Amino acid sequence: MAEPGIVGHWHVASADMVIEVADCDDAVCGRVVGLPDPAALDVLKPDPALAERPLCRLQVLTVMDFGTHWRGDFYNPEDGTDYSVSIHVNDQGKLELWGSTGPILLARIIPLAVAWSPVAPPEQPCEAPPVS
Predict the structure, then answer these.
(1) What is the 3-state secondary structure (H, E, C) of the chain?
(2) Closest to 83 measured CA to CA, from 91, 73, 93
(3) What are the structural domains of the chain?
(4) What does the pLDDT read at residue 65?
(5) Neighbour tally for 18: CB within 10 Å
(6) pTM for this structure?
(7) Which of 20-38 are b and which e, b meaning 16 or more Cβ less than 10 Å from the residue's Cβ?
(8) How far apart are CA 30 and CA 110, in angstroms?
């Protein structure tokens, strides 16, 4: 089970989206549950087959508890990039994500440093468009 501090709903200001973080199997996962445009697609994903998928309810975060911190993977729909991340709740109660795109010697490094603010769950979670 996740520590209560990371479970909940978090607002990503830069994308104006809400991520729901909750327990899932042996990890903690985050899914998109709030967007200005519920019909938005994952258009920045480099894989053309995945660029047509809806962002609503898309799982974007999977982390595991390593005692003093959480580590795992985050897919950022704002830039279509997968990151290895470390997360924690900071002194201001925000969820901080720090990460990079891969091993320093093997991949290009794009740093990630963001803080998500806690919010109430959306009244109506975004509706994913029907899959055709």
Answers:
(1) CCCCCCCEEEEECCCCEEEEEEEECCEEEEEEEECCCCCCECCCCCCCCCCCCECCCCEEEEEEECCCCEEEEEEECCCCEEEEEEEEECCCCCEEEEEECCCCCCCCCCCEEEEEEEECCCCCCCCCCCCC
(2) 73
(3) 8-119 (2.40.128.520)
(4) 87
(5) 21
(6) 0.85
(7) bbeeeeeebbbbbbbbeeb
(8) 21
Which residue in the block uniquely carries the two structure tokens 């468009």? 129
The first and second tokens of residue 38, run together, are: 């519920």
Residue type, 45: K
What are the pLDDT digits (tens) for 19-54? Answer: 999 999 889 999 999 998 989 999 999 999 999 999
For the chain, give the number of residues.
132
CB burial of residue 115 (10 Å; 0-12, 13-18, 19+): middle
